[in-house]
Amino acid sequence: MNLLLLEPEEIDREARAVVGGARASHVASVLRLAAGDLLAAGIVDGPRGRARVVEVTRERLVLDVSELREQPTPARQGIDLLLALPRPKVLKRLFAPLACLGVDRVMLTNAARVERFYFDTHVLDPSFVRERLIEGLSQARDTRLPRVSIHRSFRRLVEDELAIEAGTRSVLADERLAEAGPSLRSVLRDGGPADRLLIAVGPEGGWVDFERQLLEGRGLVGFRLGERTLRSDLACLLAVGLGRDFLSEPS
Amino acid sequence: MNLLLLEPEEIDREARAVVGGARASHVASVLRLAAGDLLAAGIVDGPRGRARVVEVTRERLVLDVSELREQPTPARQGIDLLLALPRPKVLKRLFAPLACLGVDRVMLTNAARVERFYFDTHVLDPSFVRERLIEGLSQARDTRLPRVSIHRSFRRLVEDELAIEAGTRSVLADERLAEAGPSLRSVLRDGGPADRLLIAVGPEGGWVDFERQLLEGRGLVGFRLGERTLRSDLACLLAVGLGRDFLSEPS
């Protein structure tokens, strides 16, 4: 826990927060702080800084957060992800690292090869998603939640809902391009400068032709995933990693 | 399961393998194969190809593997990882993706900021490690196990045991270099061509000076990890991803 994150509604009018659970026990048992000590804290989608411990036991932590101020949070490179909904076991491990990497938007979509029951999982409950995202933000010392949205119609998402800002490079992991086709890096490099990146990653088994064509119609360019078949969570994380690298140093 | 992997000792003299558990139930219930069908199979550190189903129920699968032949397995780029032993919860999730990415060697080492009890975990049991590695190989359709070794003395590892082949670029994730210092990509690009890569990733809290100096003494060059603090498993996977990208297309 590099940054203790508080929900806005946990703060009272006197700028005090009272929390229990993992956060209290972490401060008491791992950080071993006592009343009067300072620790790195932030408010979700709000300021961060140093909070003062007013009272702490393993069950209960009282913080004075009056000194938290708006200040720059760690850099985000401007990456949006359009991801065919993975199976719950894979999906649940993806929220924290994506938040940690500073992805701006995660659009989870239906696709021909997505099983319908994937949408029924508790892993998509807003409270579960938020908890995992906060875990990733806390690791990265960030306070700003990525936006996560769920789209049951792929066609409506791509044709109507998907807003692509000017200056965005849009790419599409294409499992048909094993060793042929351009790498992500060459697609990025050869497309000229860009401020933002939209990355689409398909389901296990890949996009069907209709889906691929719809994405290409919105300007997404395919890149090869390579000869080794990666699970979709690993493919996502590596694509975001390469994308961050490109946006932070385009040459 | 993109490739069903068999242990050499599971094959009898008539080139038959009898297996149960997850592999049998996967073939019966997910792939829904029947006697006479072919499926992608391989032998750990051996050949791969098509095996014929002789008999299958959810509990028991009999395969004829007489047609498996030595054939090229998916490309590996020649990456070795020197990793300060992470805590068990983090470590156990790392073996499968590292095998999936085709890492050649994983050297798990002690360091000043590694807790001693990390070495006592069942996650380091050879059978547990092997099972997780095979899961990753199976995903990538590979048969060749990465070599995993455990080093209780960092100094002995770096001074005596660490063999660095000619043509290897050696780099060191350095958490002191937040936004200053070169990126991994610029370290790779500016160092000229290389056939292989050795990547060192430190413990939570980073290497101590003595360790960093020892690694630099063996020619490892530091790269920045960036302003967002990544958990060591994510840092590893992204560094391997960038390394693969560089080795496959150095320009």
Describe the structure.
2 copies of one chain form a homodimer. Chain A is α/β, with parallel strands linked by helices. Chain A has 8 helices and 11 strands. A 6-stranded parallel β-sheet of chain A has the order 8-7-6-10-9-11, sandwiched between helices. The first copy, chain A, has a 5-stranded mixed β-sheet with strand order 1-3-4-5-2. The two termini of chain A are 34 Å apart. The interface between A and B is medium-sized, with 32 and 32 residues.
Task: Give the helix/strand layout.
2 copies of one chain form a homodimer.
Chain A: E1 4-6, E2 16-19, H1 21-30, E3 38-43, E4 48-56, E5 61-64, E6 79-84, H2 88-91, H3 95-101, E7 105-109, H4 126-140, E8 147-151, H5 154-161, E9 168-174, H6 184-190, E10 196-201, H7 209-217, E11 221-224, H8 232-248
Parallel strand pairs in A: 1-3, 6-7, 6-10, 7-8, 9-10, 9-11
Antiparallel strand pairs in A: 2-5, 3-4, 4-5
